[in-house]
Amino acid sequence: MIMEYNFRQLERKWQDHWVKTGAYKVSNNSTKPKCYVLDMFPYPSGAGLHVGHPLGFIASDIYARYKRLKGFNVLHPMGYDAFGLPAEQYAIETGQHPAVTTEANIRTFRQQLDNIGFSFDWEREINTSDPSYYKWTQHIFLQLYGSWYNRHAAKAENIETLIRIFEQEGNIHQECPGDRSLRFSADTWNNWTYEEQQQALMEYRLAYLAYAEVNWCPVLGTVLANDEVINGVSERGGHPVIKKKMRQWFLRITEYADRLLEGLETVQFSDAMKDMQRNWIGKSQGAEIKFNVAGSLENIVVYTTRPDTIFGVDFMVVAPEHELVDAITTDAQSQAVSDYREYVQSRSERERMAEVKQITGCFTGAYAVNPFDGRQIPIWISEYVLAGYGTGAIMAVPCGDARDFGFARHFNIPITNIIGDAFNGEEANATKDAILQNSGFLNGKPMREAMDIVAEKIEQLGIGKRQINYKMRDAGFSRQRYWGEPFPIVFRNGVPEALDVSELPLELPHVENYRPGEEGEGPLANVTEWVNLPSEPGTSLKRETNTMPGYAGSSWYFLRYMDPNNAETFCDRKVSDYWGQVDLYIGGTEHAVGHLLYSRLWTKVLFDLGLIGFDEPYKKLVNQGMIGGSSRLVYRVRGTNQFVSAGLRDQYETDELHVDVNIVDGVELDTEAFRQWRTDYANAQFILENGKYICGTQLEKMSKRLFNTVNPDMVVEKFGADTFRMYEMFLGPIEQSKPWETKGIEGVHRFLKKVWRLFYDENKGLVVKDEAPTAEEMKSLHKAIRKIDEDSERLSFNTAVSAFMVCANELTDQKCHKKAVLEQLLVLLTPYAPHMSEELWAAIGNSGSILDAAFPVFEAKYVAESTKEYPVSVNGKLRTTINISLDVEQAEAEQIALGNEVVQKWLEGKTPKKIIFVKGKMINVVV
């Protein structure tokens, strides 16, 4: 029997016990209501976890345990997002194979997670780099490759249905999402070669091949997603990124734009998260208008949301990479255009779109013709127009658009005023409420009315049409790197073909080096015996050398957790019908327009194909904040090996240096540990204040570089897992970012010791009794039940921890050692401090695990007030307060008031004229 609160011993004891008894094993067959709680699963880095990482995991674990106590069958799994560029780079840096480093990193993560006492069902553990897992990632990719989006049915269908349509009627009723100019009849289709048919189908497939400009990082030897490029360099390593045309796989997410928007109305995401996704999708309504190029057979189609401003177009801007640039550029401008395009090649998309003062562009020498007034409009190229958005060309209206205005001013382009007094000549006005001027047949028309007039006119003239556009573009799905899922695709004489499902998984071959191929292909291009397959004479059969991006495995992992050992399918339909959507998903906002959008897309496709029964993966999403590091600083006297304490540093010229927070107690530096920390500090001398060296502090991102990371293993070793769990929650609301302060953890640890002393006395041992609780004890308990139940349900864990502290203080003051009260308190505490709760549950004689106890039921009768503190006035002036029963009547209230010593003093022996008694509110004695 553990008499003292020996957290190390009891936590190891119960963690071992839970493993041996399979305490967290979850069944797919249960009569209980289900609850699926999920974390965005971690990438297992070589650095391991610091105390900021488990914040979301602890929150989800508390909620999962809470719902279990409330009678739910709870799925709470964990696994590893193990493929991707970071693992490959780490392997290169350490000279090891990524499979080896990933396995070692997973072992470290698993040990750290186990130390914290999570309720994960480890029998459901998944690893995206395991062939038994990525077999099904490849399988789902083939579902995408083998499907198209039927716009009439608003759903994905098997590509075979499209082939039958083409055989019967061509594509006359099926606008091509890839090449909108593609038109063919049934006869044409039926007379095409196999290769020609496959090329046409590629323009419809949900997973398709295309040549596209990509973010190519020569140093990393890979293509990067837009969100992996910051200010023209790679997010990882800071290496230069350039634009390069390469054959890439894409997912046709643009076909799902409307459904992705509509789905946001059905899920519980924060408003900020929904806005991020809406802005990324960027739906807009407008028109496409064709402008002929003067003196040429070419024409440029622009997309505009403001067709009403057609007479205010003063110039046109096309993307530097637009296919018509070479055709329309004049000889005189050829060199300038070439130089400018070379400059744009070095710019990231984020830089090109940023709202900065720098304005760049180049005149092509060509002019477009306004289709309504014949005015010639100069055609420029500029980096702020992207080829992938709309048509890659814009009509610029400087009086109504700030960016166009700045461009016109910079390059001295005359500005036409079509909005009269609404334009002051000094800045653009994007109003939609002006009366149009200088606008031909639109003169005198309100702008909002003119939008429809112009849209109708261009359709009548056959020079345009109404159009809905999206800022979002199709998702790049290729990476020129090794450590990712191989594509289950072979090229027969250059034509892609899907592998048969029986050939999956297509496993990664082992490679010794990770250099890119000769033409920038992925490292797999160097494994010629794997790439080149045996084939008949005259036939070339090659594998795809790109690999899938990191988000491939994470787009569907929530489904595999449901049925992780199924060798026949990615998830049995009966199982996914039982678990359904994830009820609570916890993760960071950084995945708002990456993982979350892709996961929603994959879910909708699988739903359309009848493979699952819901089309949104996550019912409720909570974005946890970041735990920042509270850095510690020392001050070296410039040019010496002396370090001056923070309070004295103004007396010296100093250099500010970061020091390892783990050798600082609060703000007091362990000077001997500092000397041992690094060899260049071995002979450090210290200028102390009051005998101590006091460090400076600074709140920053937790980072190894700043020496402010705290290993959770150290915290658990010093204070225990239960303390660590509760302290992370006590720091503040889960959604908010907050600093870590190791010193503050001691208060939570003292609280748990206080709870322990309700059960154990140092001298007497176990002091819990089977006595009836008092009314005050039951009141304290049920106040806690109500508060903690409400707070746990709404994920307000910091206020729940405060409620525990209040309850423990009250029960301590009441000297409560009643089993009827304390065992209920333990059940409340179980999600937060499971180890202590399990230990004390057994100590007071309960059989079975507290994990399976029923959550206490709040009973209002125990907290109902029986008395009221009445304010008592004499002649309208408050003189005292008296506690009186709530059911007292007038006569008794008068008697109590007149018997009060303070009231008698103010009466001075006089007889009251009357006594005013307002039940439940006040008493006033009138003399």
Short description:
By secondary structure, the chain is α+β, with helices and mostly antiparallel strands. The chain is built from 30 helices and 36 strands.
Give me some keywords for this one:
927 residues, alpha+beta, 7-stranded mixed beta sheet, 6-stranded mixed beta sheet, 30 helices
Task: Tell me the layout of helices and strands.
Blueprint (H helix, E strand, L loop, with lengths): L6 H15 L12 E6 L14 H16 L3 E3 L9 H10 L3 H19 L14 H15 L1 E4 L4 E4 H11 L16 H6 L2 H9 L4 E11 L4 E3 L4 E2 L2 E2 L7 E10 L5 H7 L7 H11 L1 E11 L5 E6 L10 E4 L6 H4 L5 H12 L3 H5 L8 E8 L6 E6 L11 E4 L5 H9 L36 H15 L2 E7 L4 E2 L12 E4 L2 E4 L29 H4 L9 E3 L7 H4 L2 H4 L12 H7 L4 E4 L7 H14 L12 E3 L3 E11 L4 E3 L9 E6 L4 E2 L2 E2 L1 H7 L7 E3 L8 E5 L11 H8 L1 H10 L7 E2 L5 H15 E2 L3 E2 L8 H19 L3 H17 L5 H11 L4 H10 L23 E8 L2 E9 L4 H9 L2 H7 L6 E5 L3 E5 L1
Parallel strand pairs: 1-2, 1-21, 12-14, 21-22, 23-30, 24-28, 33-36
Antiparallel strand pairs: 3-4, 5-6, 5-9, 7-8, 9-17, 10-11, 10-13, 10-16, 12-15, 13-14, 18-19, 18-20, 23-24, 23-25, 23-29, 26-27, 31-32, 33-34, 35-36
User: What composes the largest sheet?
Assistant: 7 strands, mixed
The percentage of residues in β strands lies in 15-25%
Average per-residue pLDDT, rounded, comes to 93
Overall spatial form: globular
Q: Structural class per helix/strand content?
A: alpha+beta
What is the count of helical runs?
A: 30
Radius of gyration: 35 Å
Q: Note poorly predicted spans.
A: none
**Count of DSSP E strands?**
36
Through-space gap between termini: 69 Å
Percent of residues in helices comes to 25-40%
